From TrEMBL:
It holds the Pfam family PTS_IIA. The lineage of its organism: Bacteria, Bacillati, Bacillota, Bacilli, Lactobacillales. SUPFAM superfamilies: Enzyme IIa from lactose specific PTS, IIa-lac. Its cofactor is Mg(2+). Keywords: Magnesium, Metal-binding, Phosphotransferase system, Sugar transport, Transferase, Transport. It comes from the Bacteria. PANTHER family: PTS SYSTEM N,N'-DIACETYLCHITOBIOSE-SPECIFIC EIIA COMPONENT (PTHR34382). This is PTS system IIA component.
Length: 106
């Protein structure tokens, strides 16, 4: 993979992962305030960002599978860590929203 393409993919992981985590946090805040419609929309937004991040990651994995090895840098590792944290955070946000929804209906 060309260095510029690699950098773009890495930055995509960081950007979209960050957007997902931010949207998930906003979803929790909305649920806490009782606005479940907004919470649900923010989770949808987070999941859309995660899909975009996965597209960046898939491009990198495809290049690797084709024998075009990329140099693993601290930035590359950071981008993968950022994505995994965002996935976990979004999953946890869904559970927290569900708890707030249950409390609201009790």
């Amino acid at each position: 993979m060309e260095d510029q393409q690699n950098l773009e993919a890495v930055m995509g992981l960081i950007m979209y992962g960050g957007n997902a985590k931010s949207d998930a946090m906003e979803a929790i805040a909305a649920a806490k305030a009782g606005n479940f419609e907004l919470a649900d929309q923010k989770i949808v937004d987070a999941e859309e960002s995660l899909v975009q991040a996965h597209h960046s990651q898939t491009g990198m994995l495809t290049q690797e599978a084709q024998g075009n090895h990329i140099q693993v840098t601290l930035l590359t590792v950071h981008s993968q860590d950022h994505l995994m944290t965002s996935i976990a955070f979004t999953d946890l946000a869904k559970e927290i929203i569900d708890l707030y929804r249950r409390m609201d209906n009790a």
